[in-house]
Amino acid sequence: MENTKNRRLEERLCYQWPVLFAEDFTKSVSEGIMVDVSSGGLAFLCRADGNCPSLGQKLKMRFSIPRADEDDFSAMTSFIRTGCVLRIELIKSSLCRAAIQFDEPLTLKPCELASIALMQTHVKKL
Prior knowledge:
The chain is mainly beta. It has one helix at about 110-125; strands at about 15-20, 30-40, 40-45, 60-65, 75-90, 95-100. The longest helix has 16 residues, at about 110-125.
C-alpha cells in the first residue's frame, strides 16, 4: 500500500454553516453549506444545478465561523473573501462539493480559534 502524505498546512475546522457565493454580489447570489474551513480556503456543498461553480471560476464568498468570546458563546466572526475553485466533486445527482482557495488567507486559523472558544466554555462551566 502506498504511503500518502497529508499536504495540508493546518488543521481544518469542520463546521456546517451557510456560505453565500457569487462571481459578483451585485448579481445573483447562491447559497451553500460550508463543510470545512482553514486560513487558506474552504469547502462547501451546493446544488448541482446552473448555480454550481465550475473548476477555475473566481468567486466571492461570505461566511462566518465561531469566535472566542467569554461572554457570548454564540458569537461569530464574518468574512468576505474571493477565491478560485480548485475542485468540484459530484456527491450525488443533485449535490456537489466545491473546494476554494482564498486569494488572500484569513488572518487567523479557524481550527485554533474554535479550540480556544471550546476551552473558554469548559473553564467557565467550572
